[in-house]
Amino acid sequence: MNNENLEKQLRELRKANKQELPPLLRTRQDSIYASLATIVQDSAGKKKKRKIYPKIAAIAAAILLSVMLTAIYPPALANALKQLPWVGGIFERADDLGLQAAQSLGLISRPNSSDTHEGITLSAEEAVFDGNRLAFSVKREGEGLGGKLTGVTVGPDGKLFQEKGTISSAKVMIDGVPLEVFADGRWDALPSLSWIGGKEGNTAIFALVDSSNLGISTKPFPDQFVLTLTIGLEGIDEPFILQIPARRVTENIIDNPDIRVQADGWSLTLQKLEYSPLTTRLSLTLEQEADGDRTAFNLTGFEVKDEQGLVLENISQSELLSSDRSRNVDLLTEPFGKHPNMLTIRAYYNELKGPEKKHGLFKTDSTGNPVKHYIDGLEIKVAVQ
């Protein structure tokens, strides 16, 4: 963004009526989704190359102008600052439409929790919970750390290793109890905990999803709780412990369409559809006849798109076998950018690269994406409330 565009936006913001965000009640869902359409456009724009102001004076002037307007246009100021690449939180710089929406809608909390060992500090920066996903960000600070907070490094010998200060383990408890309590004692139904690196190498974004949609007597997370996060870092003896308060901040819309389709020895059923401004969640059952391709059954995934053809990015997919050729699937994706009238769920299986075709790496196309084989007829169209 150049000076002229920034000044133009700020002039427009002055003309706008100052409004406070209303509670996220069901009756306001349409207006919230309308705002997400703008976020989608902003997100696409962020992927384009931007020019940084060529002079330090220009940077200082833009930031000073923004600070001066804080007292006058607080909500608008946040939107203006998001356009500057060096300003903003970990969530809004993530390639995650739901986290960007949480920032834009003012739903993010600040846990204010940190722990320090051997000169390294980990702090919980942001958190948001919509009943489906608890997302929280972690930042690392310290001297002499060359590696990223997440991932592995390739050594000179070609072998993978973790550098000092990289996350080696993570576990959580909810209100002081382990996740096993929410899984009805089944290891294969444990809530899903995952993490990825943020835009900056010293940051990470975690996601915790319960297993209550897998069709057994598992328990959902409470609407409000305290998460205890224990993180191990490579090369550091003592674990880091962070306390993250979580409170559900959305009122989700839930539908139980119970739609079933059959095709060539397969069947797919959509039992439940739940969505908020932060996530879209589907409960599915996939079945295959006994003489079907077992490898394809094990490698089946699902694609969700709206009537404009926009595919929703997957956040997590948990599965639980109910029989040898039947499994329950809990699929969590990003929210839709613009409230659609219809969603389409398509089943596909990936092709493996290995000659035995039973395990190994996925075969990829010319763009580096896994090759998908869509299962003819295994497609569900569902109207969205």
From TrEMBL:
Protein name listed in UniProt: DUF4179 domain-containing protein
Transmembrane region(s): 56-73
Record bears the keyword Endoplasmic reticulum: no
Superkingdom to which the source organism belongs: Bacteria
Organism, scientific name: Paenibacillus jilunlii
Domain DUF4179: 48-139
DUF5643 domain sequence ranges: 256-358
Keywords in alphabetical order: Membrane, Transmembrane, Transmembrane helix
Claim: Transmembrane is one of the keywords in the record: yes
